[in-house]
Amino acid sequence: MAFKVFLVDDDRYVRKGLMNLIDWEGCGFEVCAEADNGEDALEYIQKFHPDLVITDIKMPVLDGLELIKHTVELKKTNPNFIIISGYSDFNYAQRAVKYGVHDFILKPVDKEEIEETLRKVADKYTKELQLNRNRENIVAETAFNDLLTIELEEDLRQDCVKKLNIDQTIGFAYIIIEINNVAVNTIKIREIISRTIHGEAVNSTTLFREHGSNRIGLLVTNKEIQPFSGGIFHFSEIVKAQLTIHLQTDVTIYVGRIVDDAIDIKESYETAIKALQFKYVEASEKPIVYGNTKNRSVNYIELDQTQYQSLMEHIEENLISEIRKDVVMMFEQFQEEAFAKDAVRTSINRVVHEVVKTLQSMDGDEKNLTTLQNMLNWDNLPSTLIEIKNMFLDFLLEAAGLLNRLNKECGSGNIRRIKKYVDTHYKNDLTLKHIANTFYMNPVYMGQLFKKTYGMYFKEYILQVRINEAKKQLRQTDLRIYQVAESVGFSNPDYFVTQFEKTTGMTPTQYRKKL
């Protein structure tokens, strides 16, 4: 950006000589106007606010020093001044310094001397502009954050809007941009977005807000959208395409609802965050615009308990093909039943934690799983659904292999599977003999091994599981006592009440009333 310079000298040839002598553009300036007397110059300065005034001392009506004095005293504008004069009287220089004149150059003008002075002035202006812009940006970003995240009174909201330093055009949208699969510095994302929207216009302001690793939000105005024919959706497609080209990875864009007034941008911000939950439901190659999704809502649910149990059994038995089928079905269900992004995370993490828990119960070291760290941190770095699926499957197959080796090395492998069986089949009529036959073990040996492994007899463990489940149902349902007894594997309600009281110190009815 070239700074504006205003030439003032009563000698027309001096003015033309300066214009032709100096490489204005190379010094960061352009001549915006000229005047031959101080009075006209003062009027122009007050009206058009040039950045730099180069003036002679000796002029009719109003001399150079009077021009500078009046400009400073009026305080309407604050240009830099350079005095060029044939008068070398030291008093002039002293008075010039008093008014903050940048430099005092004697005629005849030396090209190198004045160009060096101009470059210093341009450098000073550039630093001041950058400093002011940084201050304005800090104020704007603070106001932006307050407007989005704090419940403000009407007057405070209006005050925040004024500090945003944006064109108050009609139409605003908050957009969240997410870079998948690779870690990227968000400063680079900002630069690409700014260039896409504003080109090389360095003074243009874009309001950004960090949303964690590889995710950044920004406010887009209708004025910025208009050059991209096709509205907000097409605008988002172009931003996505530019980021994909520069970063060489998948990009997901979430668009909040368009609002008319900047004071309402919090609504657009909140709906953009809601759009994030559609990530694993919508096609990732298109921007996800809140309100335009094929599924009008997402579901905050979990996979059925039987699916978890089936998957864990296949992992513990190292059935590779079944594990693959389970994972395919699991991820298909995420999409078919419109699982929210948070629900997908919960379902995956539940399996990961169960695998680690099973591994630890077999005295295995989870640190031996090379894929564990990725699965513990998978949601910290945004990824596509296919990338998550592959990562998850790699983890499960490695865990199944490790569990299989531990089973072979440890004679208690079967006893742990028996415990799992009791945990999921406690409603059935379970006896030591029946379970031993099911797992092809000697009943006496099985009973001894169970006591040695878990510190309690097999029959005690079955009772513990049933009583714990009964307590859960008494807390969470309105079932009658006999119904609870039957649902947890007691055929005799009176025996259930006796065992419940013996274990907890109170009857089922007393337990429920205590809640």
TrEMBL record:
Q: SMART domains from the xrefs?
A: HTH_ARAC, REC
Domain Response regulatory: residue ranges: 4-122
Q: Which InterPro entries match?
A: CdaR_GGDEF, CheY-like_superfamily, Homeodomain-like_sf, HptR, HTH_AraC, HTH_AraC-typ_CS, Sig_transdc_resp-reg_receiver, Tscrpt_reg_AraC-type_HTH
**Location (main, coarse):** cytoplasm
Residues annotated as transmembrane: none
Q: Where in the cell is it found?
A: Cytoplasm
Stored Pfam families: GGDEF_2, HTH_18, Response_reg
Superkingdom, natural source: Bacteria
Residues with PTM 4-aspartylphosphate: 56
Q: Which residues form the HTH araC/xylS-type domain?
A: 416-514
User: What keywords are annotated for this sequence in UniProt?
Assistant: Cytoplasm, DNA-binding, Phosphoprotein, Transcription, Transcription regulation, Two-component regulatory system
Name-wise, this protein is Response regulator transcription factor
Q: Which organism is it from?
A: Metabacillus elymi
